[in-house]
Amino acid sequence: MPLFDEILCARAVVRALIRAQALGQADTLAYVLMPDHLHWLMSLGDAAELSLVVRAVKSLSTREIGRPVWQRGFHDRALRREADLRQAARYIVANPLHAGIVSRVGEYPHWDAVWL
Asked: N or C: which end of the chain has fewer CB within 10 A?
C-alpha cells in the first residue's frame, strides 16, 4: 500500500504544511497529497528560502511518521503571474481525478485550496 494511503501518514504531512504556514515560512494556496507524492502550491514567506521550507516540511513529517518518506530533492516551478495561480490550483487538486483514483475531486480526502 502506498504510504500516503495510510491516514496517519497523510495527516502528518498535512500538519507539516500547516506548521510551515503558522511559522510564516509559506502560505499554502493549494495542495493534494497523492498516494506517493505531494503537489504543493505555495507562496514563500518574506524571509523564507524554498529549499529550507521544503526540507522543514519533509523533516517534520518524516519524524512524525517514524520512517523515511521522501526522495531526495524536489521539482519546482515558479509562477510569475497571479492570474496563473487559480489555474495551477485547479490542476493540482484535480490530480486524483486525472490519475483515476476518484470520479469526483470531492471524493478524495487529502487536498485543499484557498479558493475552493
From this structure: N
> Burial code of 56-87, b = ≥16 C-beta within 10 A, e = fewer?
bbbebbbeebeeebbeeeeeeeeeeeeeebbe
Domain spans of the chain?
3-113
Is residue 91 exposed (0-12), middle (13-18) or buried (19+ Cβ within 10 Å)?
middle
Fold of the CATH domain 3-113:
Alpha-Beta Plaits (3.30.70)
- Mapped onto helix, strand or coil, the DSSP state of residue 74 is coil
Per-residue confidence (pLDDT) for residue 48, from 0 to 100: 85
76 CA to centre of own chain: 12
Output the furthest CA–CA distance in the chain (Å, rounded).
Answer: 40
Nearest to 99 by CA among 39, 17, 57, 41: 39
Taking only the tens place, the pLDDT of each residue in 92-110 is 999 999 999 999 999 999 9
d(CA 81, CA 68): 35
